[in-house]
Amino acid sequence: MSVDESQDSETGAAPARHVGAPAGELEGLAEQARALAEGRVTSTALVRRTLERIAATQGTVNAFRRVRAEAAMAEAAEADRRLAAGERLPLLGVPVAVKDDTDVAGEPTAFGCAGEFPPKERDAEVVRRLRAAGAIIVGKTNACELGQWPFTEGPAFGNTCNPWNLAHTPGGSSGGSAAAVAAGLVPAALGTDGAGSVRIPAAWSHLVGIKPQRGRISTWPDPESFQGITGIGPLARTVEDAALLLDVASGNHDGDLHRPPAIAAREAAGRDPGRLRIALSWKAALTFTRKPLHPDVRAAVTGVARTLARLGHFVEEAEPDYGLVGLAFVPRATAGVGEWADRVPDRSLLDRRTRGAARMGRLLGGPVLRRARAVERRQQSRIGALFGPYDVLLTPTTATPPPRIGTLAKLNGWRTDQAMIAACPYAWPWNVLGWPGLSVPAGFSADGLPLGAQLLGPAHAEPLLISLAAQLQDDLRWHERRPPGHPERLDGVPR
């Protein structure tokens, strides 16, 4: 069935109370980088403002697990000296954040777990690349325990809340990074995505979130993460900012198992995608569980499809052949949980669901895990057949709006899995395939909660997805909306 491009493309728009004023000064990653290079602001001012915002919201949003206040201010002063001397780098002096599964020298990597963790001796490769581009790492953001769930809550750090409505989750597991960007604490942040953990919080926090091609951003000191299903990706308010962070973070370490060819993401954000053939799919991969689609999500994604048709693309409903892709996901995911659990100093502090997943990973290791990985090429061939007649696959990012805080956190393992699959059935197959996906804001629920639409492509398709997302942003202007109470301006912050 073709999408009727004559119908209203504003389905799911935010209620008036969530529509912010015009964009504040110097709120974006690219804008901050330009302002620093032109001498319109100092890194010291930007980092000080960031730290003040983090401190002011830790009791409400609670986005950060670790804040590098003293170190970040010292690094900002050094960035100002370098800028004054004429040095220019893509992000010289710009404050950003990383998720607490990513090593930062001198900081522990607890990945949502309780207990005392030793500080890391050296940066992860992606952090090294951020620093090489001049970025200031202001802190590490909260994530649920070992990244397993689409919420960011736990006894180790409390509840991370959605800036659009503090009673709801921003999603997970990169919920801290998403909340930090949505609340205006940092202009962009990195997360990791093993089953939608960048795309889900992007959808539920009104952000752009990119899951790149496997290996696009190095996971070193791990040659691959979670048996290859997890990758690192950016969260930002605009496509340009997400693409800029992707460019800066991309690249490989000699020890990486996956090394895709380089792309120019930010360049793609400024390029017309051409007229594309887009498949609109409502079908989720088979999991033998109920996955009802919330009517507000269907309306919002239908609105995106109509916008794409109005922009000149051919859009029709078509479904990929997912087969039994879930049978390949579970052994890899649980093996990854087991590998991370072995790094925890005191495993008795782990959530009972984490201990159960680690046991399952050990049970499914060996021959079962090897078979799960061996069928990947066949799965790519079967699902990838869609990309003969079509260029891009459009789906909901999630099946529901963001749940209330506590909805999933206190369930047992089985019930958590069922609730998680019901809320988030659309993202994880692309982690098995290792292919790129991108979530964009699709509007809001009747209750004013953010919703997302997912653009999916075949291997190495990030430039096409980014170009298409940028075209959508130019039309829908989602980046001009702010959560209630968002700090809009730099006014009053000294240079």
TrEMBL record:
<dbReference type="InterPro" id="IPR023631">
    <property type="entry name" value="Amidase_dom"/>
</dbReference>
<dbReference type="GO" id="GO:0004040">
    <property type="term" value="F:amidase activity"/>
</dbReference>
<dbReference type="InterPro" id="IPR036928">
    <property type="entry name" value="AS_sf"/>
</dbReference>
<dbReference type="InterPro" id="IPR020556">
    <property type="entry name" value="Amidase_CS"/>
</dbReference>
<comment type="similarity">
    <text>Belongs to the amidase family.</text>
</comment>
<keyword id="KW-0378">Hydrolase</keyword>
<dbReference type="Pfam" id="PF01425">
    <property type="entry name" value="Amidase"/>
</dbReference>
<feature type="region of interest" description="Disordered">
    <location>
        <begin position="1"/>
        <end position="22"/>
    </location>
</feature>
<dbReference type="InterPro" id="IPR000120">
    <property type="entry name" value="Amidase"/>
</dbReference>
<feature type="domain" description="Amidase">
    <location>
        <begin position="46"/>
        <end position="465"/>
    </location>
</feature>
<protein>
    <submittedName>
        <fullName>Amidase</fullName>
        <ecNumber>3.5.1.4</ecNumber>
    </submittedName>
</protein>
